[in-house]
Design brief:
Elements lengths: L1 H11 L5 H28 L11 H11 L6 H28 L7 H6 L9 H22 L11 E5 L12 E3 L10 E5 L5 H7 L9 H11 L4 H9 L4 H5 L3 H17 L7 H25 L5 H11 L4 H13 L6 H20 L5 H9 L6 H10 L1
Helix pairs in contact: 1-2, 4-12, 6-8, 8-11, 8-12, 11-12, 11-15, 12-13, 12-14, 12-15, 13-14, 15-17
Length: 387
């Protein structure tokens, strides 16, 4: 944390007036001293503290039922994760076999990109232009395939360089939707400048730092169209203030994960290996997350047991695995959002299709689904199936 203030914020303060710089230095030094003191205290005391991250099965199941309105128990969440993981690993094997037949090593980012859309540009200006072109490609693809209606009121995702102080914690693109209480309809798509070190990290298994062209397309679909940006923009225009302000992570991440598979199935990547492989890789990761979260939180696995299992099964490097499991231990009830939300949407789709019969339209289903706001899928399902 001190490096944030000394190494990133201090150069940014160079444009301040002398009085402002003096105030900044005083506040910075006091903050760094407090953080350093706190870190020393933590290091001296935490070894004697018991490891207690497990809330237990009763509390976990109550959270699922009463807080998140999910129709699943901890064991059922883990089962969803296992099914997601198995499906993803089978798809990975198929794509790897196809790549091997072509003499391609998908673990090599450069080779993988050569069998996809290619590497991203190496200059900042070209990088930002490229990201915008990917958003345009997605919007055109969605309209052409009639996947979901993009209302006329939906704005743009403005490409903005990720601020320097955020780049260490946001190595990839991220999205901020338009403010709910503002008339503004545009959002911000934070994009980091080109970084040659990311390809090296990706080659070592750091999949969050692998951003060639196809992966940018996948990420832009998740963050933008038809993912988070479209979903939140539609919710912003809801006439119901509760739906306008509500946010349910299971539906939000479930929708973005659901559409990743949908875009791939509809031919977004054609026969390119890397885009299809990326979709399978992240499906595998989401499945593994949905297994570890309940196993940790209910006390069935120890922390180190979870780290070992995640390293061996999630398709990530050891450092990423430890970071992921640490996050799950600190905040149970989020890691399964992707797999569980996607499963709920698919269950609703089957019931909705049976109800509509010959009148069923997938685009109409998606339009109806997003029109209810970002609220729990269990609420949306009861409304859509009663209509």
């Amino acid at each position: 944390a001190p490096a944030l203030f000394n190494g990133i914020l201090t150069p940014m303060a160079s444009g301040l007036s002398k009085d402002q710089q003096a105030r900044f230095v005083k506040a910075r030094d006091a903050t760094v001293a407090a953080i350093t003191q706190w870190m020393s205290w933590m290091k001296a005391n935490t070894p004697s503290w018991p490891i207690n991250y497990a809330m237990g099965p009763a509390a976990y199941n109550a959270m699922l039922r009463d807080e998140q309105l999910l129709p699943y128990t901890a064991d059922q969440i883990a089962a969803i994760g296992r099914q997601t993981l198995a499906t993803a690993m089978a798809q990975e094997r198929r794509i790897k076999a196809e790549a091997k037949a072509k003499g391609v090593n998908l673990s090599n980012p450069v080779q993988a990109a050569a069998n996809g859309g290619g590497m991203t540009p190496t200059t900042k200006e070209a990088q930002f232009t490229f990201f915008q072109s990917q958003l345009d490609t997605l919007r055109d693809f969605i309209n052409r395939k009639q996947i979901v209606t993009i209302p006329a009121y939906v704005g743009r995702m403005k490409i903005v360089e990720t601020p320097p102080f955020l780049q260490p914690i946001l190595p990839g693109p991220s999205m901020n939707p338009p403010p709910i209480l503002s008339k503004q309809v545009d959002g911000v798509y934070f994009v980091p400048p080109p970084n040659p070190q990311m390809a090296k990290a990706a080659a070592a298994g750091a999949i969050f730092e692998d951003f060639d062209r196809d992966r940018v397309l996948m990420t832009s679909g998740h963050e933008g169209f038809p993912g988070h940006f479209l979903q939140f923009s539609i919710a912003k225009h809801s006439e119901d203030p509760v739906r306008r302000f509500s946010f349910d992570g299971v539906f939000a991440e479930g929708w973005a994960f659901y559409e990743e598979a949908l875009l791939e199935r509809d031919g977004l990547y054609g026969r390119d290996l890397d885009g299809r492989y990326a979709v399978a890789q992240f499906e595998r990761l989401r499945g593994a997350r949905a297994i570890v979260d309940p196993m940790l939180a209910t006390g069935q696995w120890s922390f180190e047991q979870a780290v070992k299992w995640f390293t061996e099964n999630a398709g990530v490097d050891a450092a990423t695995a430890r970071g992921e499991v640490s996050r799950f231990a600190l905040g149970p009830g989020q890691a399964y959002d992707y797999a569980v939300g996607k499963t709920q949407i698919e269950e609703l789709l089957r019931a909705y299709k049976a109800k509509k019969g010959a009148a069923f339209s997938l685009q109409a289903f998606h339009d109806d689904l997003l029109s209810h706001g970002t609220v729990p899928v269990s609420i949306i399902a009861s409304e859509m199936l009663a209509e």
